[in-house]
């Protein structure tokens, strides 16, 4: 079996050259993450959704405290009404803490390599190979790994240029490989993985408990109005519209967060992730990571949180900009290569202005080149303004038996034209491929 050794050159690794410009790791991060407080907090690209989540949690609690909980302070003796407010506020604060801890930390991002791993036995001299070279195409797409006596296949990630560990997956939204990837939560704007899964579960559990708590005490308040004024339940609800709104809101929310809590309890009891449950279906074959119900829960809640493999505040050398390279006589750039790889891997590509500018410049250059080289074909083969056509004529000497022997210069001109035409054709193919990628991207985004 072919063994591969990953490269140690990673974005977080210190640089050996002292003359390069040094920057913080998070400033040159190649993922789509958003950093705050100098790289101390790391969020996903959709971090703004956290504000909506905070509003959906906090606004009902404020309404409950103002219009419902405040009534219990006067009605319940021995400060029991104060405890009703205190528990509601405490659950709300605890829920927000778990929200921020889950969304603001590294979920278990695997540092990507700067270069693909080299197969063993191949000597690489001089400078290291760049990414997306023939060396990478020779790498096997999967490798076998034994986990608890069961063979597990690990896959190679073209974006991160590494073999992902078992249970890891690449998030197309954050553009990172994450250990024990569960899913990307749009409400938290962050991936859920090895380092924040327990906090995510505590977040949805507190949200479910808060919904049940507010829902129950709203009904208790309606019941007290019924008993105090001797009226029907419908008249009692009319007297407290805030309770009606909270009862409906919490009833709807508890089905979502409560059902999500129950689903993750099942996943933890069987030691599965959401990604594995939908993709691999361990109920059809043996789960190599299952440790029993007690062992699975202890693994989630009773083990220490794994340390981050990234030092986002460490200083590293700024990577130089890779210039476009010539492929088969046509110009290719890293931006176009990245978009093509995203399409091939099924990810949602992100078009930047630089890509459009590169395509536009290439279109203009190629149109000018093709027009200038085809200009001679467009001119009429007739004399203009008394001047003859200035085509070079070769001597007819050497004609034998009705055939012509072209001179060496003519042969050289023909070979030059063949090379130029092949370069033009390759450039045309590149422009056509880029236009196809652009159209596919527009279609995919329109469907989303």
TrEMBL record:
Mode of membrane association: Multi-pass membrane protein
Q: What's in the keyword line of the UniProt record?
A: Acyltransferase, Membrane, Transferase, Transmembrane, Transmembrane helix
Q: What residues form the membrane-spanning segments?
A: 50-69, 81-102, 199-222, 242-267
Major enzyme class: transferase
Record's keyword annotation contains Transmembrane helix: yes
User: In what residue span(s) does the Palmitoyltransferase DHHC domain sit?
Assistant: 153-279
Q: GO cellular component terms?
A: endomembrane system
Quote the biased-composition stretches of kind Basic and acidic residues, using this chain's numbering. Answer: 1-11, 384-397
Catalyzed reactions: L-cysteinyl-[protein] + hexadecanoyl-CoA = S-hexadecanoyl-L-cysteinyl-[protein] + CoA
Q: What is its main location?
A: membrane
- Region (Disordered) location: 1-20, 367-405
Family label: Belongs to the DHHC palmitoyltransferase family.
Copy the domain comment.
Answer: The DHHC domain is required for palmitoyltransferase activity.
The protein here is known as S-acyltransferase
């Amino acid at each position: 079996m072919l063994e591969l050794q990953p490269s140690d050159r990673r974005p977080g690794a210190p640089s050996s050259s002292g003359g390069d410009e040094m920057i913080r790791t998070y400033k040159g991060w190649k993922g789509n993450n958003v950093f705050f407080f100098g790289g101390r907090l790391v969020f996903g690209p959709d971090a703004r959704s956290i504000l909506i989540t905070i509003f959906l949690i906090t606004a009902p609690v404020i309404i409950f405290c103002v219009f419902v909980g405040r009534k219990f302070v006067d009605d319940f003796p021995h400060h029991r009404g104060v405890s009703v407010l205190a528990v509601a506020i405490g659950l709300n604060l605890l829920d927000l803490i778990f929200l921020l801890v889950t969304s603001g930390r590294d979920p278990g991002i695997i540092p990507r390599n700067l270069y693909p791993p080299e197969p063993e036995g191949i000597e690489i001299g001089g400078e290291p190979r760049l990414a997306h070279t023939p060396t990478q195409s020779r790498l096997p797409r999967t490798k076998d790994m034994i986990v608890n006596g069961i063979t597990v296949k690990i896959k190679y990630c073209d974006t991160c240029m590494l073999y992902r560990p078992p249970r890891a997956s690449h998030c197309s939204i954050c553009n990172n490989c994450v250990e024990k990837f569960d899913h990307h939560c749009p409400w938290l704007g962050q991936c859920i993985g090895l380092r924040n899964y327990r906090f995510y579960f505590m977040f949805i559990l507190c949200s479910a408990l808060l919904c049940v708590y507010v829902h129950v005490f709203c009904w208790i308040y309606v019941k007290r109005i019924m008993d105090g004024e001797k009226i029907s339940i419908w008249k009692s609800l009319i007297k407290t519209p805030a309770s009606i709104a909270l009862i409906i809101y919490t009833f709807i929310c508890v089905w979502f967060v409560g059902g999500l809590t129950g689903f993750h309890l099942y996943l933890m009891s069987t030691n599965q992730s959401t990604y594995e449950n939908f993709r691999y279906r361990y109920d059809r074959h043996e789960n190599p990571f299952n440790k029993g119900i007690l062992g699975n829960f202890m693994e989630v809640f009773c083990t220490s949180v794994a340390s981050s493999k990234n030092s986002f505040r460490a200083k590293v050398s700024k990577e130089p900009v890779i210039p476009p390279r010539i492929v088969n006589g046509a110009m290719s750039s890293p931006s176009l290569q990245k978009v093509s790889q995203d399409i091939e891997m099924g990810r949602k590509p992100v078009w930047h202005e630089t890509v459009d500018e590169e395509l536009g410049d290439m279109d203009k250059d190629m149109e000018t080149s093709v027009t200038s080289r085809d200009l001679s074909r467009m001119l009429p083969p007739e004399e203009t303004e008394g001047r003859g056509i200035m085509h070079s004529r070769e001597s007819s000497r050497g004609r034998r038996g009705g055939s012509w022997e072209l001179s060496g210069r003519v042969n050289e001109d023909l070979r030059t034209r063949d090379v130029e035409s092949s370069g033009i054709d390759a450039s045309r193919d590149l422009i056509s491929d880029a236009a196809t990628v652009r159209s596919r991207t527009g279609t995919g985004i329109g469907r989303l």
